[in-house]
Amino acid sequence: MSFSDHFSAVAADYAAARPEYPPALFDWIASIAPARGLCWEAGCGSGQATRDLARRFDRVHASDPSAAQIAQAPKLANVDFVVEPGERCALPDASADAACVAQALHWFDRPAYFAEVARVLKPGGVLVAWGYQDIVVPPMLEAVNDAFQSMILPYWPPEREDINAAYAGYVWPFPAIEVPKFDLGVEWPLARMLGYFSSYSASKRYREATDVDPVATVRQQFESAWGDAPMQQLHWPLFVHAFRKQY
Questions:
Q1: Is residue 89 part of a domain?
Q2: CATH assignment at residue 115
Q3: Are 170 and 187 in contact (CB under 8 A)?
Q4: What's the CA gap between 110 and 108, in Å, rounded?
Q5: What phi-psi label fits residue 57: left (phi over 0), alpha (psi between -120 and 50 degrees) or beta?
Q6: Residue 234: per-residue pLDDT
Q7: To the nearest whole percent, how much of the chain has pLDDT over 90?
Q8: Residue 109 sits in which domain range?
Q9: What is the CA radius of gyration of the chain?
Q10: Closest CA relative to residue 129, chosen from 108, 99, 165
Q11: What is the distance between the alpha carbons of residues 121 and 97, in angstroms, rounded to a whole number?
């Protein structure tokens, strides 16, 4: 099965630069699952969410179609990292307590994935999908960040619009579960933020199309605007959707 591979070429950058999700999100996922035996995480990438799921479930089946991404994943005793698409899972029927997708559902063939989730989840099992929208920077960085984001805007793949819409309009397979509010915020140095920008699929496509690194183009402006503080507070609007398979 083919897939939209926007990240294999930047797998190491992706693993190093992406923000960590709030622990409260994973505590909540574990609290709504019928048990904590097995979680299937499709589109796991290099394991940003996998580590936290592994702390709360006895076993995690973490899958991604990109071998390069899986190669960057951490070694975890209770996690099976496998190269397979989200639309086809090696787990048996009615075996998982939770199915999770972090910042990846917009790349999937959703009807096929949802059919596989319905097969793999136990009765009462939960599907949780989440993502985060554009970075929110401190006021002194807004002008240069706006200029950078405008530069790469035409190079985002069309699926990015699904993130901007927080997955509005998706046809979900099960009844919804009410989701509490979660916050995604970090304190990062400038180098980490610029590394995050380099890991964008749009930055990769810009480099391929122009032979110019868009992050290098604006690095000096960011350095000037950043000031003397070693760290700055950054934020992303985080959205979460959750559903329960009926008995």
A1: yes
A2: 3.40.50.150
A3: no
A4: 5
A5: beta
A6: 97
A7: 89
A8: 8-244
A9: 18
A10: 99
A11: 6
- Per-residue model confidence (pLDDT) at position 18: 81
The 10s digit of each residue's pLDDT in 109-147 is: 999 999 999 999 999 999 999 999 999 999 999 999 999
Is 2 among the domain residues? Answer: no
- CA dist 55 and 57 (Å) reads 6
Mean pLDDT value across residues 171-175: 98
3-state SS assignment for residue 147:
helix
Report if residue 3 sits inside a domain: no
Torsion of CA 215, 220, 225, 228, to 10 degrees: 110
Exposure class string for 204-223: b at 16+ Cβ within 10 A, else e = bbbbeeeeeebbeebbeebe
What is the tally of structural domains in the chain? 1
Q: Nearest to residue 74, comparing CAs of 100, 47, 55? A: 47
DSSP code at position 156: S
Q: Report helix angle 142-152 to 201-210, nearest 10.
A: 60
DSSP letter at 87?
Answer: T
Q: d(Cα 85, Cα 90) in Å, to the nearest integer?
A: 10
50 within a domain of the structure (yes/no): yes
Q: By the 8 A CB rule, do 63 and 53 touch?
A: no
Continuous segment of H or E residues that includes residue 71: helix 67-71
Q: Kindly give, in sequence order, each residue whose CB lies less than 8 Å from that of residue 223, ignoring residues fewer than 6 positions away.
A: 190
For residue 1, pLDDT beyond 90: no
Neighbours of 190 (CB within 10 A): 18
Q: pLDDT higher for 15 or 103? A: 103
pLDDT in tens, 30-47: 999 999 999 999 999 989
Model confidence, pTM: 0.90
